[in-house]
Amino acid sequence: MKNKLKKLAGQKVLYFMIVPCMIYTFIFSYYPLSGWIMAFQKYKPAKGYAGSEFVGFDQFTFLFTDSEFWKAMRNTLAMSLMNLFFGTVLAIIFALLLNELRMQGFKKFTQTASYLPHFLSWIIVTSLVADMLASDGMVNQLLMGLGLTSSPILFLGDAKYFWWVATFANVWKETGWNSIIYIAAIAGIDPTMYEAAELDGAGRFKKMWHVTIPGIKSTIVVLLIMNLGWILNTSFEVPYLLGTGMLQDVSQTIDIFVLKYGMSIGNYSLATAAGIFKSVISLILVFGTNAFANRLGESSLM
User: Fold this and answer.
1) Cellular location of this protein (predicted)?
2) Please, which residues have CB within 8 angstroms of residue 191's CB and are 6 or more apart in sequence?
3) Main-chain dihedrals φ then ψ at residue 42, nearest 5 degrees
4) Reduced to 3 DSSP states, what percent helix, strand and coil does the chain have, rounded to the nearest 5?
5) For residues 81 and 144, what is the distance between their CA atoms, to the nearest angstrom?
């Protein structure tokens, strides 16, 4: 016990440094959870929590029988899974290819240029995407110029293209930024592993396949666990900014559903119930993926 107290005393400066972060987290992450009580009420802002009528699980019952909510759930999962798959795969491929560049000046330029889209606001990104995919935009002009189509394709007017457009916008904006941690993980691989593979006759591709990828496997697993926890929270800006009334069936996500019922219609109770459902599913995904990674003997968060 004395050793523990002595250790704590020796790290008191670190604990004092943590206090502001703990206060911030409590105020903005834990204290607002008291508002979840609205999901079990017929909440009226004028009456507050105490004066609003308790209705038990009525909001959840309505939510789970509402076809619009399940469409939003489908759209959220579809776009989030597409973003997760293509975003992860392309970020890994980009990091691997960047690591193989031998011209340091060109490598640094490419790396820096790939980060820049991350710092653009979604307003700018979606405006660029909309201009590119317009009927008289660059993409349609190129397709017609190459003879691949005789008339402009309505990328933003046809539901079958919307998920792909949203995925393209996310991947273009975030691939470079997402590759940073993979590049850092690659830099931490023991150089003697490459030397040993080279002595065994491995070329650049085989070294990449048998040394680099296994060397960053634990990083991939940890990031996958973290990203799965956010899988229901990654589809708001692009669907909201690019989605139109005619595309509502494929563009409305859970976040847009919550915004619609909470702010536009004023049904705060139903919006809160949808938010709770999303949080619970995210928590289950994190713990489930973490347990699966433990069973496979891979690195995990807990």
Assistant:
1) Cell membrane; Membrane
2) none
3) -100, 80
4) 75, 0, 20
5) 31
